[in-house]
């Protein structure tokens, strides 16, 4: 049994907490939280022990009447692995985890250098085995690695290019914009997403551009990959179908936009309408000469959830890659290719 | 003096009417309009004679008390050139123009085959000379031809790729969406924009993808062009600076998004905040190996206005290309490279 603590109960922490609780080989010890808000109350209702990072937060919890189980030190003393899901405070917390001698999983908001190892389960699970610190890459990088990894394995990418249309805000981030503008972000090219993909797929040649658009639900990538092989469109689709955590959807079946992907997740009863898969529009997969084109959707809040679970197993168990991914996928309701 | 009539007083027709009125070598005879709405009243206030396409419309104008000068036949009898700015009804009207023996300029919503000639002033003005029918291409195609034309002339494009993030609706189109989704449009690739560019730049190899996003002001293209020459970024910028109707803006100078480009147009007093130029973010121009990257903004309502004016001169005068473009630009307040 792997005892797991979560540091930070925000967008990612909440999801990883539920996913950890769903694993038979893991125990969710609890999660730290900095505000005694409605999310804290829901956590308490669900039976998730909350911990506080310091005395001020403890006092705020006391005032609000939200119960907590102890402080961060107490949480750390009871876990084997801590998942840091703070808003880019991982570098600050790493020495604390180190002092307690705990293994830690960090998120993509941190620099690669914090751990020296950036993780996407289907690319480098095995290389993470036994490591003390692992960084799960960001949502966009995870989506790119899953899909480009499948295309690269199948047909050899000589050059990849991606244009990322990024959601401007998560659904609960009411004070962010824009509301009527397209924002080149950054204006200076290329964007950081290419180098971040290379922190996982080290030999991949890739250049990325990113814009921000007024939506809340998903990112949408336009991918253009030059490949050595000359696959047919059916062969590219076949490679994506055999890759884990890639979901193919059809425009003709009603998936007209990112909105229908999220609506599908609501229909099938996914928790928080989470789409854990990299979503590729099957009818967008096109081959022109030696270039493969496709649209890729990334649910920014959810896609890294399975990677965090696998990262925990990679650093704290002997479970091999395929078995871990299969188990994770089964517990989260993700179709796993046979 | 070239007598000009406008068929359809909508997004494009209104702008071309004002631009025609601003030319010393043209006379705006009038414009047809199908609804006696506030736009019709403003036209009357501005002294633009309105014409009605049929008896029902005439009756509606009578009921609303909006004066008109006659019907389409009367308008056509008084013009040398008619600019068709109807919502893709050009094929229906062409026989009417033909019956009256009038030259006609059509818009990019029509098929290339309607005229057999697709027009972007700086690419093929001279070839349009003496033609009876010319099609001014759509806003996106115009922007792509201006910018890719400049890059191709300078450095030889072997393969261009563009991802178009399209505005979902014009500012006055209140019943269109989406409001919180990114729409691959079309899902099946490539989009029609590539072939449309090839209707002007016949030997250019180009593949395009397009998505629709919830903004009203401008389209934003992410361009990736493989070039034979190995230009520096400064050389690419130089080529764009010497091209007509391309405006370079700097993110560092406050042009953080499409919204600031429109705000700039308001500040400088452009009519209807129109941006007639193809807008390239200077700090986005990047060369990676043999590929040139940049962001291109296209004001969908305005960019084809100067092309319509030049198309009129190309079919109905002996004015050479450079002189026509220079005159058009001077009257519209567009910087023209010397």
Written description of the protein model:
2 copies of one chain form a homodimer. Chain A is α/β, with parallel strands linked by helices. Chain A folds into 2 domains: 165 residues, NAD(P)-binding Rossmann-like Domain (Rossmann fold); 160 residues, 2-Layer Sandwich (Dihydrodipicolinate Reductase, domain 2), CATH 3.30.360.10. Chain A is built from 12 helices and 16 strands. In chain A, the strands form 2 sheets. Chain A has an 8-stranded parallel sheet, with helices on both faces. In chain A, strands 9, 10, 11, 12, 13, 14, 15 and 16 form an 8-stranded mixed sheet that branches. In chain A, strand 3, helix 3 and strand 4 form a beta-alpha-beta unit. The longest helix of chain A has 17 residues. Chain A is globular and about 65 Å long. The model of chain A has no long low-confidence stretch (mean pLDDT 97). Chains A and B meet through strand 9, strand 10, strand 11, strand 12 and strand 16 of A and strand 9, strand 10, strand 11, strand 12 and helix 10 of B.
Biggest chain pair contact, residues each?
A-B, 44 and 45 residues
- Assign the CATH class of the largest domain in chain A: Alpha Beta
Number of DSSP strand runs of chain A: 16
Number of domain units of chain A:
2
Q: Which fold does the CATH topology of the largest domain in chain A refer to? A: Rossmann fold
Cα-to-Cα separation, first versus last residue of chain A: 27 Å
Low-confidence stretches of chain A: none
The main sheet of chain A comes to: 8 strands, parallel
The radius of gyration over CA of chain A amounts to 20 Å
């Amino acid at each position: 049994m792997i005892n797991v603590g979560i540091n930070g109960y925000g967008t990612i922490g909440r999801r990883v907490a539920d996913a950890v609780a769903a694993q038979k080989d893991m125990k969710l010890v609890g999660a730290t939280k900095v505000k005694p808000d409605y999310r804290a109350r829901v956590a308490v209702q669900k039976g998730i022990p909350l911990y506080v990072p310091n005395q001020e937060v403890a006092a705020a919890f006391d005032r609000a009447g939200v119960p907590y189980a102890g402080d961060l030190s107490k949480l750390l003393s009871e876990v084997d692995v801590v998942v840091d899901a703070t808003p880019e405070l991982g570098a600050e917390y790493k020495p604390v985890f180190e002092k307690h001698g705990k293994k830690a999983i960090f998120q993509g908001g941190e620099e690669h250098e914090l751990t020296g190892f950036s993780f996407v389960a289907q690319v480098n699970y095995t290389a993470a085995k036994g490591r003390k610190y692992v960084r799960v890459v960001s949502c966009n990088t995870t989506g790119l690695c899953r899909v480009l990894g499948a295309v690269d394995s199948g047909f050899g990418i000589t050059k990849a290019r991606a244009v990322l249309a990024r959601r401007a805000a998560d659904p609960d981030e009411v004070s962010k914009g824009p509301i009527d503008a397209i924002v080149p972000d950054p204006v200076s090219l290329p964007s950081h997403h290419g180098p971040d993909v290379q922190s996982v797929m080290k030999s991949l040649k890739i250049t990325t551009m990113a814009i921000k658009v007024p939506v809340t639900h998903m990112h949408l990538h336009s991918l253009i990959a030059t490949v050595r092989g000359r696959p047919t469109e059916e062969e590219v689709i076949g490679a994506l179908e055999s890759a884990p955590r890639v979901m193919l959807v059809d425009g003709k079946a009603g998936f007209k936009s990112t909105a229908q992907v999220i609506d599908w997740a609501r229909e099938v009863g996914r928790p928080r309408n989470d789409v854990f898969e990299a979503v590729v529009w099957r009818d967008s997969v096109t081959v022109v000469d030696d270039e493969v084109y496709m649209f890729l959707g990334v649910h920014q809040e959810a896609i890294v959830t399975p990677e965090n679970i696998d990262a925990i197993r990679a650093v704290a168990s002997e479970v091999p890659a395929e078995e871990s991914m299969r188990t994770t996928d089964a517990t989260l309701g993700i179709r796993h290719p046979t």
